[in-house]
Design brief:
58% helix, two-stranded antiparallel sheet, 14 helices, cytoplasm, PTPA_sf
């Protein structure tokens, strides 16, 4: 993906994406599209870029990476500016709708501030993916479909040449990791419901991609063996260095029953267990995640009504 010639923003006609995958009948067209292959290629490329690398490890940090981090920090500040309201419902705090309205009003502006001027023609198209990355304002929920929108936003930045191949590690360990922190802040501040009644693939109620890239970080790790991710001390000591473990730490922090859940994870959720058992073996990870990548991109586009252009 990163080796392709970037889109010329000065001559390309950008269009605001529309919901195009609304039912199972649309999925076949989606799977045959170049956009589908771009997303698979992007996820794979980023997976390779962080293989065996800690989240805290030094990496190339371009000026655009710094600007995108600043943009995410601005959005995070909006959460602080708009506190939850008192309401009888325990979940789905309606103050999230005020946050979402502010993003709709100011999202394109802060994106233009983050991107060099030569890429501004693309903002009208890619801003939609960023807007859809933080949850649904009607249901006040968040799920892996929203996460996928952020993945598409990042992929678009590569497609137009704003992000380059040398930015790949920072895209995962800095930009995506900062996005993950922001989403956790949204989930806890506004008590957002998971966009799915039983979580997704028995991994996490909200996220999926950090388990893929996080497992790549842990490949061939000499100090953390697969069974150790169920150990709370291991999780706490290493969460800042490995995205996979940061996900476990977050779930532990928001669920008082999750300690028992983790201790019994092998019997309750063998799918999660098998994922962690696979990560030291590169060839097994590739096979396992290839199947999962196909599942996530296909299933979400039905559930969330994926935004895309006709490509």
């Amino acid at each position: 993906m990163c080796s392709e010639m970037p889109i010329d923003c000065g001559h390309h006609k950008f269009e605001e994406p529309k919901r195009a995958v609304l039912c199972p009948a649309d999925v076949k067209k989606w799977e045959q599209s170049s956009a589908y292959q771009d997303i698979l290629g992007f996820i794979t490329s980023m997976n390779v870029a962080v293989k065996g690398k800690k989240t805290s490890a030094p990496c190339i940090t371009s000026s655009l990476t710094t600007s995108l981090l600043k943009m995410l920090d601005t959005i995070s500040q909006w959460v602080g500016d708009i506190p939850p309201i008192d309401q009888p419902q325990r979940y789905g705090n309606k103050a999230f709708r005020d946050f979402y309205s502010r993003f709709k009003e100011q999202g394109e502006r802060i994106m233009r501030e983050a991107l060099p001027e030569e890429f501004h023609p693309a903002v009208a198209e890619i801003a939609v993916y960023l807007q859809e990355s933080f949850g649904n304002s009607t249901r006040i929920d968040y799920g892996t479909g929203h996460e996928l929108s952020f993945i598409m936003f990042l992929c678009c930045l590569f497609k137009i040449g704003a992000l380059k191949q040398e930015d790949s590690a920072a895209v995962v360990t800095q930009i995506f990791n900062r996005y993950l922190s922001l989403c956790r802040k949204l989930q806890t501040t506004y008590k957002m419901e998971p966009a799915g009644s039983q979580g997704v693939w028995s991994l996490d109620d909200y996220q999926f991609i950090p388990f893929i890239w996080g497992s790549s970080q842990l490949q061939m790790n000499p100090k953390i063996s697969p069974e150790m991710f169920c150990n709370e001390k291991t999780v706490n000591d290493n969460a800042d260095d490995y995205m996979f473990l940061s996900c476990i730490k977050f779930i532990l922090s928001v669920s008082c029953i999750f300690k028992d859940y983790v201790l019994n994870l092998e019997t309750r959720h063998p799918h999660t267990r098998s994922l962690t058992q696979a990560f030291p073996k590169n060839e097994l990870v590739c096979q396992h995640l290839k199947r999962e990548r196909g599942d996530i991109i296909t299933i979400q586009c039905i559930n969330e009504g994926l935004y895309r252009n006709n490509q």
